[in-house]
Structures are given as C-alpha cells and as structure tokens.
Amino acid sequence: MREEIYHQDEVLTTQSKSSVSDRDNVKKQDRNHNTLTGTRDGQNAPEQQPAIPFFKLNIPNVLTFFRFAAILPLAALIGKWPLYRLTSFILFLAIWFTDLLDGWIARRFKMVTGFGKLFDPFVDKVFQVVTVIMLYAIERIPIWVPLYYVFRELLMIFGSTLLLARSHVVVYSDIFGKLSTFLFVTASSLVLLIPEPLGIFENLIFLPAIVTSLVAMAHYAIKHTTKKKNE
C-alpha cells in the first residue's frame, strides 16, 4: 500500500514537473515569437513604415527627367517668340502638367523615392528661372522679375539644404507655394499668348505670384522655426 502511495507521488511529481516544463517551453516560444515579430510583453509594437528607396526608374522619375530635358527646347522656342508662340505655350503647359502628374502618381501608387523628393523641386526651380529669364530676353517683362526669381530660388536652395543637413527635414510645398506656382503659370501663359505689347501690365502681371511666393517663404520660415523650438 505504501509502495503504491509512493508510486502515485512520483507520478504526480513527474506530471507536475512536466507541466512546469511545458509552460516554460510555451513562454520561451512566445518570447522568441515576440522577438521575431517586434512585440514585447503581449503588446503590439508600432508598425514600421517601409523604407523609401533613393532611386528607382519608375514613371514619376521618368516624367521628371522629361520635364528637365524639355526646359532647353522651351528656352529655344521662347527665344524665337512670336514665331513659335503657340508651340512654346503648349510645351510650357506640358512641362507644368507633368509636374502635377508625377507627384500624383508617386503618392497614389506609392512610387515615392528620395531622388524624386530632391530632384523634382530642383527641376521646378530651373523651370521657373529659365522661363522668366527668357521672357525678359524677348523684352516681355522687366528685369526685376527674373532677378527676384533667381534670388528666391538661390535662397530656397540654401535654406532647404541647410534644413536637410542639420535636421534631416525635406521642405515640401504647402498651399501658399502651390498657389504661387499656379499664379506663376498663369502669368507666364498670358505673357506667351498675348502678342501685343503689355504696357503697364509688364510690371503687374507677375505681382500676384511674387507676393504669394513671399508669403510662402515667410510661412516656411515660421513653421520650421516653431517646430525646431518645440523640439
């Protein structure tokens, strides 16, 4: 009888040890699983965003290359104004339209790249500066307009590079910047399309775009200064 009791105690002890061992194994497997899946203590870790590649030969980047390559032919066509007035106007709008299109495609189909973030705004700056320089060259606008845009773009390049180097911040166009670009396109289109001398409108036609761009620059500075102070 006593031997049977001892035997039962050994069985219970063995089962207890086996249960503890099983629980330990389950806990160990859970910890390993949590380590692999990025969780800890039964809580979900924040989802990591997929890394953005620096360069990929996708549709948005191809459109950006097209836009950059089309700037030189646009300058040549504007230089022969009014002979190729309509052609230069169509090419000007095509360059601007591809700017809208490649940004939409990149965001909509998740084709954003680091190269596109840097090169796309650079092409926009070259596009605007070359356009106003050529419009001044054919005596359609006063010299202070291209001087302003050259100074503004140099200042924006310097400021954007500084923010990128020090704070790893890429400056994106906000509502004021987009409005300024739209007003710039409108003014340039009118200058290209109207064959007659502009007279007093030479000094006024780019004024809304320039005022809006000044507001955009001030807004950029205030927004990033405030963000830096808060950090």
Task: Briefly say what this structure is.
Helices cover 74% and strands 0% of the residues.
Compile the SSE list and pairings.
Blueprint: H1 2-37, H2 59-79, H3 85-108, H4 114-137, H5 144-167, H6 175-193, H7 207-230
Helix pairs in contact: 2-3, 2-4, 3-6, 4-5, 4-6, 6-7
What can you tell me about this protein's structure?
The structure is a single chain. This protein has 231 residues and is mainly alpha-helical. It has two domains: 1-48, no CATH class; 59-230, Up-down Bundle (Four Helix Bundle (Hemerythrin (Met), subunit A)). 74% of the residues lie in helices and 0% in strands. The protein is built from seven helices and no strands. Helix 2 (59-79) packs antiparallel against helix 3, helix 4 (114-137) packs parallel to helix 6 and helix 6 (175-193) runs antiparallel to helix 7 (207-230). The chain is globular and about 55 Å long. Mean pLDDT is 80; it is low at 1-20 and 33-43.
CATH architecture of the largest domain: Up-down Bundle
| Low-pLDDT sequence parts | 1-20, 33-43
Q: Helicity, in percent?
A: over 70%
Q: Give the helix tally.
A: 7
